[in-house]
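#structure-requests
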Amino acid sequence: MSSAESNEALLASIFEAPDDDAPRLAYADWLAERDEPRAELIGTQCALAALAEWDPRRIDLQRRVRGLLDRHEAAWRQELPRLDGVLWGTFRRGFIGTAMVTDFATLAREAGAIARVAPIDRIIVNDFGSEPGVEHLPVLPWLRRLDLDGSYRDGPAVDPERLADAPLLSTLRKLGIGANFLRGAGLRALAGSPHLARLTNLVFDSNFVEAEDVEVLEGSVFSALTSLGLGNNWDRYGEDADDPTFGDTLARRLAGVSTLRSLTALNLSHNGIGDEGLVCLLTSLHLAGLKALNLGTNLVSGEGMAAFSRPDVLPRLESLDFEETPIGDRGLELLSASPHLSQLVRLGLQQCEIGAAGVGALASSGLLGQLRELKIGWNPIQDESVRLLAAAPGSGLLHTLLLDNSELGPGACAAIASSPGLTGLAQLDLSFNPDIGSDGARVLVGSPKMASVYDLDLGAAGIGDRGVVALASSPYFAKLRFLSLDRNSLGDSALEALACAASFGELQELMISNTEESFSPVGLEVLFATSALPNLTRLGLRESRLGPDAVALLARSALLPQLAHLGLAFNDVGDSGALALAEAGAWSRLLDLCLHYAKIGDAGLLALARSPQFPRWAVVDWSRNGTASAEVEKELEKRFPCAFGGLRGKLSLTD
């Protein structure tokens, strides 16, 4: 069998069994024999997909996947066909898993071609209100997920009656239809559909259903649902604001729907649910299988959290989110005392009016010792609270800790640095705590605790050059792959330190945007010429006071060839800077270039659109510049179709 025949046979086996890893891994072995880097992507993404969420091996695998994509994705995308009205999404288990189409007419025309490109199972439709409608499409045996999210809608909302009658739905496992203002009529139409018996995941957020509408779920086709999104139905500033019973009534009626016995994940954020509604949800026998519950932006009170200690609450929850719900210290005290949360590993408490008393209760409870993720930023938490958290027994399991936008200073950094626990900390967010300053940063980065951190956000933390110099000279960042220093006062010393950082060899993403000072050409030249950041593929320089000369310096630099993602929004790029980028001959990896509000006129934009240097699939966001000509806009849209209509946002949705 020839090499071409082997390739076709192996690919055919993947298309025949898209859910099976074995054919993909066999193809990876065949590619590895030919030294193709795609082999490593297939093997690594398959291994990643098979691991449990908190498996420590995920960190290294995720780093490898990002590195492979940033180095090779531009070249791999060159192999994809250009289909009119079709954009290719992200790689999943080694192959493109998603395609976005302009409308249903495009899907009808290109479905066969899409199915031949890769084992795609997800379609995102951009304008789903146009003709011909969804009801005219045939069944696509390979389609498992369909997204009609109105947040990015270009045209009218989807017609729920026509959607419910569409045979296209018969193969779906997941349907995303949020933000279409469908109200109860839409939910009733879907509940009566003869084509949704296989559906396990329904996202119906932001459709403004009424409390009584959820009763249509009883006895409907949704008996197989394991995940349901019904968030954002309560208008706190509109007609629902004067109805204090709205959320509790919705929760009570939902809790009585026996059809939902298979649910493991439920999103009820922003629904005005109060104490009574919380009790109904936690004690419902029909929701006894829930593992993830999102009650963010609701009205549960501190005393209402006593519901978690009721004897009839079933201890199944693994993930719980109360973001922007005013439970306060009393609420966290009661939650921490619950005997029914022995399986909880993820807790979201952002903006919950929590202070030292609540944090102290959590720290002294057994609950903290089992958490893997704690989001507790945007609260009036001070250094003493962090000392309590850091000193708590069993905190070594904590993987993700978000303390952003609190009231922290150097003492919080000292507490983290000297903690007897926190040995597994991988993601740490201390952003928007301006009192931390360089002194706090110096204490933090001198700690061996940082040796496990791969994601560090110190944006708007009051850090100056001294802090960055200490950070760059720390021996403990061998695993660091993401670093944000946005909104700090950084000068040339900081840039020079970053350019010479001895332990930043694994750093993949660096954010130094919105700086309070202007970088000089000297500092920028040193950073752009660095060889100490060999894996840096993502650079954020948004609103950094860069002018055309600085952009031209980057365009000529040794750093440019390794960049896959570059952010230059809100800088004075101008026509000459755009021309320098257009003429750069080193765009070997570029996937995403953001030039939003960059003061570029028609001449510069046309130079970009006509540049032969950009990879064919590069996304260039050229919005909010000086375009005056309809002809120029048309040429730009043709050359960079991903940049408009919310398409960039859609393609970045979780795949």
